[in-house]
Write a structure and sequence with these properties.
heterodimer, A: alpha/beta, TIM Barrel, eight-stranded parallel barrel, four-stranded mixed β-sheet, 18 helices, about 15% strand, globular, B: alpha/beta, Methyltransferase, Methionine Synthase (B12-binding Domains), Chain A, domain 1, Rossmann fold, five-stranded parallel β-sheet, 5 strands
């Protein structure tokens, strides 16, 4: 692991100290009042909230370590943590540019791209849920509402949503209520989760406070998200940056539990590091990767909630071999660090651009890593103990019953090839890029059908119509 | 060898006390304040700018050098005549409406300031109308807008449109930047310049300033 037990314990103690002494600024009177009533120390003038040790520990005791992110199709429900010790992938959210397969340059994201993105995600077995990129060809006041409508029309999976404004939040929740079957049903089976972010360091803005309050009111799970940039919004030393992310996530866990004890919260630490030459932030540097792994471990072990971080993506400005390499490294490190959700599938240019081909590749790499992580018991059967005793010295295992019984346990790739060169040429399967393009075409030409009834679709359209009327 | 070589090196390496002592010593020796400024402090920052562009210096080192230069300048200021301190231009900077991120914008502001620009920082979450009002009020040469969020980039377009509507677009050079911003986006919204990072912002501002003059 990336932190020792003693280091986790030490950082936990420091986090409690920080929450009690320094605290957090919350720029929302309603939330401040609610936190004060629930036992936090909140100063209306300075807007600083501090949490005493017992309050934090009580909150961590009631914060659930396991719960379910429901999907529109129950077959795609996501129990957390993953039942076989694996993880779930999720797509990029918020990118502005879209690289068409075969395209030379990314272009602005359109509403149709959201549909394509959701269609692809529907057939990615390792991508558990979908977010929407940032659409350019609709009025920006309702871009999130329009994108969510398109997502719900094309996806049978859980959706995660980052509201763009206070005003649009109401319509996004209305859509979740419509698609999720009403308030009680949505509470039981939350088909949507919401992102609430700190403004690092140690500040919570009104909109994120609104999201937190609304999520707790409706029983919608929260991805409590901190995005520190080491050297900019957090200490340049990776562990300092990890600490900032952890205490901000801790604050959101505590706030959620004070508002609604037992509310599901996912500790979401998206770690960046500032490039000290250019000032740009990146997430593929070794410092950011180490921080991502350490933050996952700290939040999971110290706070006991499911974790989520970037588990794909690249800082490369173009879709190339750097993109695929950095994404695979990110997946490997974060998966092995124990993250429950690996985000950012399909993205490059530090979350700004997305590529359907990279999404398909990330899905494959995540499948590989899930297979690596799949543990299982170490018993006589796993060892092949009897077979070892039976086999002749210098003999073979190929013909044994043990091999026969377990030969299908292995992970089968859908994209990579291990053919001998002549076989590969003979099959005419092309290189990886060509295979990715073929898979993309196959999915787009054979999309899965609609998942929501016409009635639900019409009701969603009505919500979008109201949003258009009110916000544009 | 220039009499200011040591001073320049001390500015570059951020030795504030040494720079202040050397500036005082130069004055005591009868050297003109304007000469100390140009051949010592400004020349040092030219080296720093070149080293930053060549990726030989890190941003925190550049900022330390800029602060050190300012410490020396404080001593000279009372002795400088109006016009001795050449200003490259006045720049308004701000993060666009809906966006609360200011590290990049602050970095650009600090570097512009150290490069001789007069900087007025409008802060974060700045409405297009506020940008317009401040351009009108200050007669700024440049307007620098920053956005970190992809969702707030359209506010740059809204601001450019608002400047156009107010009849001010031709009197101010519009520069944009921020992680998701690109040259193509700058072209699309009709901005005059785009900078991919803080160092580039200085270069672009100087180039566009020279063209404007």
């Amino acid at each position: 692991m990336f932190l020792s037990a003693a280091q986790v314990e030490g950082l936990y103690e420091k986090a409690l100290l920080f929450a009690e002494r320094k605290g957090f600024k919350v720029e929302h009177d309603g939330l401040l009042t609610a936190l004060k009533s629930a036992g936090a120390s909140a100063d209306a003038k300075s807007q600083i909230v501090t949490f005493g040790r017992s309050l934090v520990e009580d909150a961590l005791r009631v914060a659930p370590s396991s719960f379910k992110l429901a999907a529109i199709d129950p077959l795609n429900d996501l129990p957390l943590p993953h039942p076989s010790g694996g993880f779930y992938g999720r797509t990029n959210t918020g990118a502005t540019r879209y690289l068409e397969p075969g395209g030379a340059e990314p272009r602005p994201v359109t509403l149709d791209d959201v549909g394509t993105w959701a269609t692809l995600t529907g057939q990615m077995e390792n991508i558990g849920f979908c977010g929407f990129p940032s659409v350019s060809n609709v009025p920006q006041e309702i871009a999130d509402v329009e994108a969510m409508r398109r997502l719900l029309g094309a996806s049978s999976k859980h959706v995660w949503v980052q509201p763009y404004t206070d005003e649009s939040l109401k319509y996004l929740i209305e859509m979740a209520l419509v698609a999720g079957g009403g308030q009680d049903e949505l509470r039981k089976r939350p088909i949507m989760s919401l992102i609430t972010c700190s403004l690092t360091p140690f500040l919570f803005k009104p909109m994120d406070a609104e999201v937190l309050l609304a999520a707790c009111r409706q029983g919608i799970p929260i991805h409590a998200c901190s995005l520190p940039s080491a050297g900019g919004t957090s200490p340049i030393t990776p562990i300092g940056s990890v600490f900032v992310a952890a205490v901000e996530v801790l604050a959101m866990i505590v706030m959620a539990q004070l508002l609604a004890p037992g509310h599901p919260v996912i500790g979401t630490t998206l770690m960046f590091a500032m490039d000290m030459h250019s000032g740009r932030v990146n997430h593929s540097s070794p410092e950011a990767l180490r921080a991502a792994a350490q933050a996952v471990q700290l939040v999971k072990q110290a706070f006991g909630v499911p974790t989520h971080t970037y588990g794909a993506g690249s800082d490369s400005p173009v879709f190339d071999t750097q993109t695929t390499t950095e994404a695979a490294v990110q997946t490997s490190i974060v998966a092995l660090a124990g993250a429950d959700i690996l985000g950012a599938a399909g993205q490059f240019e530090t979350a700004t651009s997305i590529s359907p081909l990279q999404l398909i590749l990330d899905n494959e790499v995540m499948g590989l890593l899930k297979a690596v992580k799949r543990g299982g018991p170490i018993d006589d059967d796993a060892l092949g103990w009897q077979t070892m005793l039976d086999v002749a010295h210098g003999g073979t295992f190929l013909t044994t019953d043990h091999t026969y019984e377990h030969c299908r346990d292995v992970w089968m790739t859908k994209l990579f090839t291990r053919d001998a060169p002549d076989v590969w040429r003979g099959r005419n399967h092309g290189d990886l890029l060509q295979r990715l393009e073929a898979r993309y075409r196959d999915i787009i030409e054979h999309p899965a059908g609609a998942f929501l009834s016409d009635d639900v679709g019409a009701a969603l359209d009505e919500v979008v119509g109201h949003a258009r009327q009110a916000l544009t | 060898m220039s009499p200011y070589d040591d001073l320049k090196l001390n500015v570059e390496t951020g030795k504030r006390d040494a720079v202040q002592a050397q500036v005082k010593q130069a004055l005591d020796e009868g050297r003109p304040a304007q000469e100390i400024l140009q051949e010592g402090l400004v020349a040092a920052m030219d080296v720093v700018g070149a080293k930053m562009e060549a990726e030989e210096m890190f941003i925190p080192e550049v900022l330390r050098a800029a602060k050190t230069m300012e410490a020396g300048l404080e001593i000279l200021k009372p002795l400088l005549a109006v016009g001795d301190m050449r200003i490259s231009g006045t720049v308004l900077v701000g993060t666009v409406k809906g966006d609360l991120h200011d590290i990049g914008k602050n970095l650009v502001a600090m570097l512009l300031s150290s490069a001789g620009f007069e900087v007025k920082d409008l802060g974060i979450n700045v409405e297009p109308a506020t940008f317009v009002e401040k351009v009108k009020e200050t007669g700024a040469d440049f307007l620098g807008m920053s956005a970190l969020l992809t969702t707030t980039m359209p506010m740059m377009q809204a601001t450019v449109d608002a400047l156009e509507a107010a009849g001010l677009r031709q009197q101010v050079t519009v520069l944009i930047g921020g992680a998701p911003v690109t040259q193509a986006f700058a072209d699309q919204i009709g901005a005059d310049g785009y900078a991919s990072d803080a160092g580039a912002a200085i270069k672009v501002a100087k180039e566009l300033g020279a063209v404007a003059k």
